[in-house]
Amino acid sequence: MTFKGLKTSFLGLIFGLVVQFPGFAQSICPSNLGQEIEAVIQRPEWRRSRWGILVETLEDGQILYGVDENQYFVPASNTKLLTTAAALRVLGADFRVRTSVYGVGEPPILASLRVVGRGDPSLTNKQLKLLAQQLKEKGVQQISELIVDDSYFKELPLNPSWEWSDLLFYYTPSVNSLILNENTSLIKIVPQGLNYPAKLVWSDAIVARQWRVYNDVITTRQGSRKTIDFYRDFEQPIIYITGQLPVDDEGYTTAIAVADPASYFLESFRSILLEEGIKVNRATIIKESSRFDLGEELAFVESPPLGNLIDKINGESNNLFAEAILRILGSESRNQMGVEVIKENLIDLGIEEDSFSLADGSGLSRQNLVTPETLVQVLRLMAQSPDAEIYQNSLAVAGEKGTLQRRFLDTDFVGNLQGKTGTLTGVSALSGYLFVPNYQPLVFSIMINYTDQPGSNLRKAIDEIIILMSQLDDC
């Protein structure tokens, strides 16, 4: 599709989003944009930091400003832009992940029941209940052996380049073939009587049984400082929690990764089967593929279409969803590594091979390296693709949706920036589309690396640059 034809689809859609920005009376000529941006990035607080920026017009690719746009940067979650672009091209927007249940034997007693997972990141207890109800409707009352087949993904559940300190929490869970409830559970720490240990409350009893917790959080006097720290043992499923909670505090809640996802799935499904009146005599987990006869497919559930799943990836920056889709790409492509599938596809799309190097699909790894130019090229090329609207609508929206929902709230261009954020310690990024009232739509990538400034300062500086871009005028 050419940009000429695009004007009635993608560009027509985005021009329809544009509103006036009365809050910013100043206009900036395109020739002056560079000096305005440099006034921000050359401030003393950034003297040891590294900026990579590229701003272009979306329709004709005119470069309005660039600094180190051809150099590598750690992109953080901007990596997801590449993962989702490849996924749409390889799998298609209508692709669904199917979780199947196969049976051997005749109801009411089955010799075996095998649950085959294919990496659906959206699977919850609700879907397990649907599977159990389908089996009940077929007359199943007893299963001699329940087999949980967790062998679909060939890649490691945890990427070895992820930071160890992240591996306890919800944003870095294990990624296996049978994901359930995003492989996480909420844990709340509640103050008790003065000088007494705080109370731990788990949202999922099965997850709670997997972890041994040493709780050293003490309840302190009213108005005292709240501090909570988590540590994990990497040889055993042990969590250490230290700190203090004021007696009048409402408590502290976070989400913890499941220690053993396959066992969690098995125990959860076994419990739900029992609730439906289906007894299980014994249960087994399989992590290596086998050639045994699966039997008849007795029940199945499917994920929402990929077009919906990438909303979670790009809009909410969900790492588990991104990593699951990465592994699905690999498994659906002759068991290749997912990053190799992304690489092949982006090269086919027209991206230079040496302009990016990926270690994962989510951006958790600091070994990911991408140039601002590559991100801009991917955004532009996806804007010309049949999946342009799906891809664009998956992004966060300033002041309205996803990771940009609470940004730009004090501006008058809420809804006119659609982008992907990225955050690691010392890293911040924002890439996407900006729809300017008195100028052309823009495509851009802004990244900053190697900084000791707090994340709030990084976001503020990036937002200043976006506001400058929004003031462009034909002059």
In short:
Helix content is 28%, strand content 26%. It is α+β, with helices and mostly antiparallel strands.
Task: Give a topology summary.
Layout: H1 3-6, H2 10-15, H3 33-41, E1 50-57, E2 63-67, H4 79-91, E3 98-106, E4 109-116, H5 125-137, E5 142-149, E6 184-190, E7 199-202, H6 205-210, E8 212-220, E9 227-233, E10 238-246, E11 252-257, H7 261-275, E12 279-286, E13 296-302, H8 306-315, H9 319-331, H10 338-349, E14 356-357, E15 369-370, H11 372-383, H12 388-393, E16 396-397, E17 417-424, E18 427-434, E19 442-449, H13 455-470
Parallel strand pairs: 4-5, 5-12, 8-10
Antiparallel strand pairs: 1-2, 1-19, 3-4, 3-13, 6-7, 6-11, 9-10, 14-15, 16-17, 17-18, 18-19
Key features of this structure:
Beta-lactam/transpept-like, disordered N terminus, alpha+beta, 28% helix, single chain, D-tyrosyl-trna(Tyr) Deacylase, Chain: A, hydrolase, Beta-lactamase
Detailed description of the structure:
This protein is α+β, with helices and mostly antiparallel strands and 475 residues long. It folds into three domains: 3-93 and 306-470, Beta-lactamase (3-Layer(aba) Sandwich), CATH 3.40.710.10; 98-156 and 260-302, D-Ala-D-Ala carboxypeptidase C, peptidase S13 (D-tyrosyl-trna(Tyr) Deacylase, Chain: A), CATH 3.50.80; 181-257, no CATH class. Helices cover 28% and strands 26% of the residues. It has 13 helices and 19 strands. It has helices spanning 3-6, 10-15, 33-41, 79-91, 125-137, 205-210, 261-275, 306-315, 319-331, 338-349, 372-383, 388-393, 455-470, and strands at residues 50-57, 63-67, 98-106, 109-116, 142-149, 184-190, 199-202, 212-220, 227-233, 238-246, 252-257, 279-286, 296-302, 356-357, 369-370, 396-397, 417-424, 427-434, 442-449. Helix 3 (33-41) runs antiparallel to helix 13 and helix 8 crosses helix 9 (319-331). The longest helix has 16 residues, at 455-470. It is globular and about 80 Å long.
